Amino acid sequence: MKWLVVLSALVAFSECLHRMPLIKGKTARQTLQEQGKWEEFRKHYPYNPMAKFYQSGTESMTNDADLSYYGVISIGTPPQSFTVIFDTGSSNLWVPSVYCSSQACQNHKKFNPQQSSTFKWGDQQLSIQYGTGSMTGYLASDTVEVGGISVANQVFGISQSEAAFMASMAADGILGLAFQSIASDNVVPVFYNMVQQGLVSQPMFSVYLSGNSEQGSEVVFGGTDSNHYTGQITWIPLSSATYYQISMDSVTINGQTVACSGGCQAIIDTGTSLIVGPTSDINNMNSWVGASTNEYGEATVNCQNIQSMPDVTFTLNGHAFTVPASAYVSQSSYGCMTGFGQGGSQQLWILGDVFIREYYAVFDTQAQSVGLAKSA
Asked: Residues in the active site (predicted)?
């Protein structure tokens, strides 16, 4: 009888988890390389991963050509589907609209307010700053469905114009999962509404990103999935409840400090593909692992050397998290590159998908902490 009670409790708990499958698709870089347009694209749109972290009163995003994880949500009644990036480095939801005539809107799905019986116009404009260019549009509200969760009266942005480089991106829009304190126009984020409307059992969500061509990546709303990690979850308090910002003590290779000497701040960011830091630190890290940096700041290595390249250890709040070369080097038909990108500031690093693929990430908005565990 006791086992029946325990089993019933486990079943009830599992039903409280809401899964948002993520598609691991082709990146903009891969698409442009296949078209022979990558170098021209990078010249026009330099990599600027810090763009969204400069707070200027408007919501921001970076032009990351290596993003490849997307999920499908729907907006409106009846539902209209969109592919979005689930971004822990921003806080607003926005999608293209039928009112947008920019090139970037022509090859993406567009929301049509007239086809939704639950749509309501807002009275404010929205501006999203990119590394280059911007998206402008309007705020509105409607029912948003994410991973089986139906969020009523969610305020979101619909675009009227979009920066040209968005035409090369696979996703239609962005769903921000960071804190309301950095949301444009103080809009209540989607996850906040999930919590406030009692749609999730716990005020936390977790992210599992698969490696290589494996499927199974997902965002789990309302808790964690022990199938996605091994060992214990290490909890790290946030140093700032804006992004998921934590304290980083150092970056070491073979026991030697190679970056973040004396400590720095880092953001766990699903909306950035690379591990990004100050140019001098990143150059030092790439030098230590035997990489050569080209004119675009991309660090290439001999694919045959991966097995002999050293691990890189990130010490966060006293806890060591090691990333092997097999995880920080990406391989393609165009060669091998490290996942260490220039463009961070001395104060702020970004631990993006390269890091999150190795460590299952749990975001607890109430306790204001991030949990990390070795990915299964």
From this structure: 87, 269
Let me know whether 30 and 166 are in one domain: yes
Q: Among 156, 180, 208, where does a domain finish?
A: 208
Instruction: Report whether 221 contacts 194 (CB < 8 A).
Output: yes
Strand 348-351 to 264-268 pairing: parallel
Catalytic residue list contains 87: yes
Within 8 A by CB and 6+ apart from 202, the residues are 16, 222, 223
For residues 32 and 174, membership in a common domain is answered with yes
What is the extent of the structural domain holding 70?
18-208
Q: Are residues 150 and 194 in the same domain?
A: yes
**Total domains, the chain:** 2
Beta bridge partner(s), residue 326: none
Q: Is residue 363 part of a domain?
A: yes
Residue ranges of alpha helices (H) inside 202-331 are 279-288, 325-328
* CB-based contact 371:362 (threshold 8 Å): yes
> How many CA atoms are closer than 13 Å to the CA of 53, on its beta-carbon side?
25
Angle formed at CA 341 by CA 337 and CA 271, multiple of 5 degrees: 105
Measured CA angle at 331 (ends 273, 212), to 5 deg: 65
Catalytic residue among 142, 172, 269, 281: 269
**In a shared domain, residues 125 and 238:** no
User: Which range has highest mean pLDDT (18-32, 67-81, 342-356)?
Assistant: 67-81
Instruction: Check 87, 249, 281, 353 and give the catalytic one.
Output: 87
**Would 213 be classed as within a structural domain?**
no
Instruction: Please state, in angstroms and rounded to a whole number, the distance separating the CA atoms of residues 148 and 154.
Output: 15
CATH of the domain at 284: 2.40.70.10
Length of the chain: 376
